[in-house]
């Protein structure tokens, strides 16, 4: 006898299925759920995109399984194949605090007060606001460590101004980072922002956590990250208060002269401070109470005694006209002081790399921009980091603080002139263009979508495809910035090539949120410069793919239609078939199975128009096999398993004959799922075992885990 199935259990299954769509196994579960819902409702039900839509779908399932025992057995069988276990979080921790921290007792007491406030229905949110160099971030982290015992479930931290895959976080990408810290794997994180908000708030609802949102830009950016959970304290760190943000204000101003002197003493020692007694007032005045400026001044006190009045510019720093430096900003003043003491080659590299906000660059990029060898660039980057003009990242790369980069950029235009700055920026973009195209071709050599690598690119630049994909992933933040820079500098061909080189990363590694800004730029440039061309069709197809992965289905459908329009106008038959195939795959995700099947039929008819010897002819058999597999998926959703199996078996025969291990295993998985749904577990078992063997060799861990769950169903007596 079947146990009653609650709404909560059904919602948990739907939530787990929707969250897992980042993997191929997750896509299967999502499409399978759609087929079951269609069968239960007796009509087409569009896939839910919001929590309230999901509740309506759960109600359809609930009512069906309680009125039809056969549907109840079918749903139970499916639900057992889905991982719905709760999140087991570790104990996330804040970044390391600074070694030397001075007082801020008044601010610390304000934070203590907000943390100790009795629950009264209001979110616990404090806003630490102060200038860029006033140590607001350091204060938040230092207080968080001091108050660690108040948050036994952990301390979350996200730098909203410095995303790992771009210059700033969106709310959606910040939620992804927070959910990762809470213990979710990438394939468990919901694709849509609304679902991520719901997941985040559910997970933290009964936990005692500290959440630090650093370098916030606006109230709109952080609103989705706030929670009313009574035991979660959120510290928002920003330069200024935000209108509309209901938060407890904690202003962070300059250090007093007394505290500034104490900080310097901790860093350089009492003996050095005694020797600097006469000029200390001038030092403190120039630093303006900024902890950053004081730290930047400390090494010069140690190396050469007290830092008195500012020195005149060195010859290689002589101004040549341009923007006026705002000496009232302590951070920029400190940057100017450090810059004056640089040797000429380090000063030049500092200026040139600061021309664009590269998120995290390495010695190879610096060498290309400055026209020097990589070893020399690495040594100079170390010099700049020692002078606090650059920061080390966790990945061993370098970046500027925003105000320091502004100083470097202004100085570059004074020193190098517009022509010199333009040439340096062009060298940077050309470096990332060459890098991306070379890696993309190595990652996906058979794809007609990937641009050709430069003629002089080494054939053995990457030992294997995975290495090339990994390089694209590491450089993605810089590639997005390169696209933006090329668009700003009026280089449309470079924009289009850079975006097309991102295709292997989209296809094999995801990163769709990070890719989205670049692809939006690419399609806009294509529409403006080369409308109705292959390039425009390719870019619209890439954007459609990423939007679909993010469950922005309406916009994805419009972009797929635009891709088909441009490919048709360009007379690119292979591209047209692919664009229509993209639209069919999108319809599968939306649970619009008949529309999906019709799209795959239409794509196949387009392929019929490619004759022997014509462009794309060599790719047609493989394209047909993929369409056969997709047809099988659509037919399964329509409740026609026998026809589905026939189509998938045709695809399997092609992939076996051509030695495509990965697609062979995927087709075997599809057939196994059809057989299990029909209760033929004995027939499915050897197919599952073969697919496990193949995919284990391919290191496709997510697929293997899904297959192992299918295998468990084969021996489950409740399947009978």
Automatic annotation (TrEMBL):
Residue segments, region Disordered: 305-330
Gene3D superfamilies found in the cross-reference section: P-loop containing nucleotide triphosphate hydrolases, Tetratricopeptide repeat domain
InterPro entries in alphabetical order: P-loop_NTPase, TPR-like_helical_dom_sf
Entry superkingdom: Bacteria
Family matches, as Pfam families: TPR_12
Protein name (record): Tetratricopeptide repeat protein
Lineage, opening ranks: Bacteria, Bacillati, Actinomycetota, Actinomycetes, Kitasatosporales
